[in-house]
From TrEMBL:
Keyword Glycoprotein among record annotations: no
Entry-linked Pfam families: DUF134
Molecular function via GO: DNA binding
Source species, domain of life: Bacteria
Alphabetized UniProt keyword annotations: DNA-binding
Protein name, per record: UPF0251 protein SAMN02745751_01545
Originating organism: Dethiosulfatibacter aminovorans DSM 17477
Family named by the database record: Belongs to the UPF0251 family.
Cited InterPro entries: RNA_pol_sigma_r3/r4-like (IPR013324), UPF0251 (IPR002852)
Family matches, as HAMAP family: UPF0251
């Protein structure tokens, strides 16, 4: 009996889940399914520029798993683009990272926390515009 698959950590879900060739109704397109964990691999490696080892660390799986997933998702995307097929992002063995702004210490959340600096109204520890005494 094979080992159960380890759930992969995913930092964020895709905003758009369905892509189709222009001018072709979705009902006439073959559909390629990309899992959410495969989407996360392509996002981390190709968009964020991580290497496979760093991607594996973030997703809490072995590098060989990332290598296998990366090859599979590239094959699926190539099939979709070259053969004019629609693709949908859904399913997979994943666990969504609980983004607790202050408590989460996973690399993806720490990166999001660092990038949030200066957005909106913060704790206000500096001598901002309304602080005439500089306190």
């Amino acid at each position: 009996m094979p080992r159960p698959r380890k759930r992969r950590r995913v930092c964020e879900l895709p905003e758009t889940i369905l892509f189709k060739p222009a001018g072709k109704p979705i009902t006439e397109s073959e559909l390629v399914v990309i899992t959410i964990d495969e989407y996360e691999v392509i996002r981390l490696i190709d968009l964020e520029g991580l290497n496979q080892e760093e991607c594996a660390e973030r997703m809490e799986v072995a590098r060989s798993t990332i290598q296998r997933m990366y090859e599979e998702v590239k094959r699926k995307l190539a099939d979709s683009i070259v053969n004019g097929k629609a693709f949908k992002i859904e399913g997979g063995d994943y666990k969504l990272c609980e983004f607790d702004k202050d408590a989460c210490t996973t690399p993806c959340c720490m990166e999001k926390n660092r990038n949030r600096a200066g957005l909106g109204r913060g704790a206000g520890r500096g001598a901002g515009r309304g602080n005439k005494n500089g306190l």
